[in-house]
Amino acid sequence: MFLRILLSVFLAFSFSFATQFFVVNTGNPKNLVDLIKKYQNRANKAKSYGIANSFTFDYERDKIDIINDGNNTLFYLITNKFQNDPTKELISIPNLNKMNYSCDNYGLGGPNCSFTNYYSNVNFSTNTIAGWFYLTEYPKNNDKLVIINRINTKRFYPLMMDRPFFRLYVNSNGRLVLDYTLTSGGLQELITNESIPLNTRVYLQANNIGMTYEVGWKTADGVSSIKRITSQSQVEPLDLKTNITNNPDSNFTVSISFPFGASSWDMNSSQWDSNKSQWSLNQDKYEQMIKDYKVSEFYFDAYEPLFSNMNKSVKNKEVHQNMLTLDNEFLLKVYNDLLGQTNHFSPNTMQIFSYDNMLFVDVREYRN
Hints:
The protein is an alpha+beta fold. It contains 5 helices and 20 strands. The chain has helices spanning 2-14, 30-39, 115-122, 283-292, 328-338, and strands at 22-25, 47-49, 62-68, 73-80, 91-92, 101-102, 112-113, 126-134, 145-152, 164-170, 176-181, 187-191, 201-209, 212-219, 224-230, 256-257, 296-301, 319-321, 351-355, 358-362. The strands form 4 sheets. A 7-stranded antiparallel β-sheet has the order 5-18-17-8-13-14-15. A 6-stranded mixed β-sheet has the order 1-3-4-20-19-2, sandwiched between helices. Strand 3 (62-68) and strand 4 (73-80) form a beta hairpin. It is elongated.
């Protein structure tokens, strides 16, 4: 409480209360980093609140921005260049049962339906899943890093039942693998020729649209490995084009389960709901995957071209990771928390250091 009173006084008397914020990159922050390191332990010359005695700064990973109100510098914000928003859940998952989709396969104004029904029955054969991953070692088995696993459950073709429709994982050799099943029941594997590079950010993506599948990875500097195939070993499945469930002349159903989260990062634990026509998006499992592999800009949606979003925000995708964006909404949260008016940041997610008339706010996800 005493800290917040001091900060309120510091901000209120130095400047007028701000509602609009502007971000200015400091470029090379070395002088600011040296200042923090020099004075963080000298209480007679600086006030230090919450920043660890062994303050570290990684010039490849971190950055410092100047936050101002258009006229005055309010504070210096320390962040990772790529990190999650500390004021939000790691991943946003839609309400699976909210009836805000139209299950219309025939252009006749189909009935309202849920996210689950829409992506299990109507729009099931168009998929994209992607994100930046940072691997330091390869999984010890092929079930450790399973990013998505969609299973055929009520297909028109009996031999496809309970077999993969769209299963993406990293194998023990570090290659990105996409499994799918033919109408004959045969399991197909689409595998990148090269292994995913270690100790660097790599964009992983897999797509499916109809009978076409593609999988690939790409680094920030353009190195990539891609595989794609349009299956010509089978007649196009009847149930890819029409929603047989809504056809009154049919007495069979078509649906695909989407065990999205529970099998997504480690199939050795709590896999998916026993009712396989249900979706199972396990938030905890995805959050663990994001933490373990320093995932960023992760999302799922209908088909989009390979690597088309690797340098874009994914916050409008159906399922998406909540990445930190230094917009006015976030900066207002920081500012109001400093004034003691709100409490958006949990303990240790925001650390503060002031020296002279300079206020540093550290909201980094990764500090060591």
